[in-house]
Automatic annotation (TrEMBL):
It holds the Pfam family Amidase. It comes from Novosphingobium aureum. The gene is gatA. This is Glutamyl-tRNA(Gln) amidotransferase subunit A. The active site is at 52 (charge relay system), 132 (charge relay system), 156 (acyl-ester intermediate). Gene3D superfamilies: Amidase signature (AS) domain.
Length: 453
């Protein structure tokens, strides 16, 4: 049934880059066989999922939605996808995304934008599904898949989840292995589940997470059984409300949503306190220095020799081949990030930009550490607005970046953070609330998420 939904919705939503219906059927059959033999079905036995096309999948084209990787079929499997297959899940296909996960609307994909299944009341204008995990969010929201993988560098799980009325959690940095995940900004990249609700996220995160010696920043810690630990009783817990997130000119409906969230968490037994995260206003500029810096370094590997595309003009030497391949292979946003990244890392500007950003990143982490002396989790909106129309922000990168204002601080600090659908805008579009937790406390985050459902 899911395979049929994927095929039927492809023209309208463009959520998948490649569909793999046979793989999903194979997992279902394997689960049937296990059931018949009385064997354990695994945490996700037979569940068909969408795989963001940033995860390397054995012999299945893996592109990061970039022309430069078109036709690349990895001969290895990412740890996270392998963990999911080991848990019994099956792959419906590879999901569209912003190119190299750079974007907030899925409009930077080489394979065309994804369209959100949602519409504003009284309008048929196509809306952005969020990004960069826009294929994942659209697929889950449109019921093409019960769940999908996402990755989050500065909000790419949480923002698309908020835009499409689904649930997504970015765990603590290091929980999910980055091995086999196409790198964007290695000190920030983290995989996580996107699904219909908190329980499904808890189940899927349990299958994805775990120590991996192949990732030098992988957390060597036991993976709790988050599903078994779920409880919406928040008595004894304290929720912090960061005053710096109450920005000037914030939409009244976002303020109302946030207040509603506070009331729900109080109903669940939590105490609510005001907290301060004084360096919040520096988070966006800091992120948009560090992420491009790391990206410019990570993307140096796409040289036309090792992967995908090669553009070899007549009579070209090696340098010409690099230049032609990269000029043809990378999209505009990716080139913009590489230029910003090499600029902030260049000898004359390194201290003024990169070193400074690293210092501010530490201050932002310290803000959170201090705030968590007073509270267990933090509640904030996920995004400053509901989903915008496709095309609305494409010519204005700065306004696109501003969309990430509430999601990048937790990324810079490596903290677990989740978006749960919490209401509708006046135009009938989904709005998300965000819960940020202490490092390693996915349990606290999931439980607060459950209380908001
Ligand atoms: N929108 C942010 C960016 O473009 C975040 C992307 C992400 O988390 N992958 O960098």
């Amino acid at each position: 049934a899911f395979n049929a939904n994927v095929a039927a919705a492809q023209d309208a939503l463009n959520a998948f880059i490649v569909a793999t219906p046979e793989a999903a059927i194979e997992a279902a059959k394997a689960t049937d066989a296990k059931r018949a033999a009385g064997e354990d079905l695994g945490r996700m036995g037979g569940v068909p999922i969408g795989m963001k096309d940033l995860f390397a999948t054995f012999d299945v084209q893996t592109t990061a939605a970039s022309h430069i990787l078109e036709g690349f079929k990895p001969q290895y499997e990412s740890t996270v996808s392998q963990n999911l297959w080991n848990a019994g899940a099956g792959m419906l296909g590879k999901l569209n995304l912003d190119q190299f996960a750079m974007g907030s609307s899925n409009e930077t994909s080489h394979f065309g934008n994804v369209v959100s299944p949602w519409r504003k009341q009284g309008s048929n204008a196509p809306l952005a599904p969020g990004g960069s995990s826009g294929g994942s969010s659209a697929a889950v929201a449109a019921r093409l898949a019960p769940a999908a993988t996402g990755t989050d560098t500065g909000g790419s799980i949480r923002q698309p989840a908020a835009f499409t009325g689904i649930t997504g959690i970015k765990p603590t940095y290091g929980r999910c292995s980055r091995w086999g995940v196409v790198a964007f900004a290695s000190s920030l990249d983290q995989a996580g589940p996107m699904a219909r609700d908190t329980r499904d996220c808890a189940i899927m995160l349990g299958a994805m997470a775990g120590f991996d010696p192949k990732d030098a920043t992988s957390l060597d810690m036991p993976v709790p059984d988050w599903e078994a630990l779920l409880s919406s009783d928040l008595s004894g817990k304290t929720v912090g409300i960061p005053r710096e997130y109450r920005m000037d000119g914030m939409d009244a409906e976002i303020v109302a949503l946030w207040d509603q969230g506070v009331a729900w968490l109080k109903d669940a037994g939590a105490k609510v306190v005001d907290i301060s995260l004084p360096h919040t206003k520096y988070a966006l500029p800091t992120y948009y220095i560090i992420a491009p810096a790391e990206a410019s370094s990570n993307l140096a590997r796409y040289d036309g020799v090792r992967y995908g595309l090669r553009d070899l003009p007549e009579g070209a030497n090696l340098q010409d081949m690099y230049a032609a391949t990269r000029a043809a292979g990378f999209g505009d946003e990716v080139k913009r990030r590489i230029l910003i990244g090499t600029y902030v890392l260049s000898a004359g500007f390194y201290d003024a930009y990169y070193t400074q950003a690293q210092k501010v990143r530490t201050l932002i982490s310290q803000d959170f550490a201090k705030a968590f002396e007073q509270c267990d989790v933090i509640l904030a909106p996920t995004t400053p607005t509901p989903a915008f129309a496709l095309g609305e922000n494409v010519d204005d990168p700065l306004s696109m970046y501003l969309n990430d204002v509430f999601s990048v601080p937790a990324s810079l600090a490596g903290l677990p953070a989740m978006s749960v659908p919490a209401g509708l805008s006046k135009d009938g579009l989904p709005l998300g609330l965000q819960i940020i937790g202490k490092a390693f406390d996915e349990e606290g985050v999931l439980n607060a998420g459950l209380a908001l459902e």
